[in-house]
Amino acid sequence: MAAKAGRSVPLGVLLMKEQTSEKIEDPDILYGQANQSKKGEDFTLLKAECQRVPGDGVTTFSVFALFDGHNGSAAAIYSKENLLNNILNAIPSNLNRDEWLAALPRALVAGFIKTDKDFQTKARSSGTTVTFVIIDGWVVTVASVGDSRCILESAEGSIYCLSADHRLDVNEEEVERITASGGEVGRLNVVGGAEIGPLRVWPGGLCLSRSIGDMDVGEFIVPVPYVKQIKVSSTGGRLIISSDGVWDALTFEMVCNGCRGLSADAAASQIVKDAVHGKGLRDDTTCIVVDMLPPEKLTPTVPPPKKQGMGVFKNMFRRKSSESSLHSDRDCLPESDLVEEIFEEGSASLAQRLEADYPIRNMFKLFVCAVCQVEMKPGEGISVHADDSSEPGKLRPWDGPFLCQSCQEKKEAMEGKKTSTDSISRKSSGSE
């Protein structure tokens, strides 16, 4: 995924709008989940009231996450138990709300990588997709690896995709990254040399390019998440987070149409029911529905009927007014329906994801590893830009943030710069 830095609306600008206009109260959060189990490898995390500042009930945010495991449940369970803490530990203390939100995208990257790195000692063959959603006021931040998805339906009925699909079949950029890092991508070989099924990474046969775990496949299967941060209109909206058991059977539009007007609990159950009815229970099928409602409006609004010929799926978000390519899309939407994009980045490069300029340059302490937060002696840290040649002359190897030796080795392995002990050979069975 290409970065959209420089084109999105700065977080400070959005928050300033709130401060200079009539105060907008935080939304009411209602949620529900449903599941039909085939393998018992799907797990969820639902925490409606977390605290940015321990003991301060005003500084609350919500977390909703889905972990779709494969080759056993170990990676999904470990991620459920440890990922949130690893993310929060990567955010400096004593930040105000807008600084905390600005720090989230990089903290999510650090938390995902630390969780994956720590899990390496637990199991080699288990892995998990992750779709991790943090809601703070009207700001929604989504981090994802794998093929579980998160979408937003606005109160007016427009649909926005907030996650990436890391299946190799639909992501050519990821295929190129893996092959450049030393991986082999191809379909399953059968007798006679015929190839069948989806694209897979070998060894291991995984259909995904990003996950937590999956050490048996190779470290070019990276845990670096795609991250999107948006500000939802004060008219509210509905988030739908589902495993591939739903998306393999239903389109985004079918999911939204089938549950519109239902409570969050009933909507989640209806989505799972529709998915299983469509293709049968072939996989664990899990759905989380989160309604963000204006205060005191405790039932979801049924959007008005769409005008003939007007599409409901919106790939584009409102950004700066100078973004001429968005004019036609913006003109057909009411002002209240515009979802404002704050941040988007999908690169697998740590030099890009932990860069020093956005959004607060001094986020990383000089003598603390930017990923695992271990303290280092002066001179021990290795800059994430030490071997980055993407922008020669702009970044210097003594510029931070810095990694400890262990996290530097992890970075090199993900980039294919460290020789793996596993040989690349085509296997006769797949992982996912």
Automatic annotation (TrEMBL):
Its cofactor is Mn(2+); Mg(2+). Residues 421-432 have a biased composition (Polar residues). Its EC number is 3.1.3.16. Keywords: Hydrolase, Magnesium, Manganese, Metal-binding, Protein phosphatase. GO terms for biological process: regulation of intracellular signal transduction. It is an enzyme of class 3 (hydrolase). Residues 42-292 form the PPM-type phosphatase domain. InterPro entries: PP2C, PPM-type-like_dom_sf, PPM-type_phosphatase-like_dom. Residues 410-432 are annotated as: Disordered. This is protein-serine/threonine phosphatase.
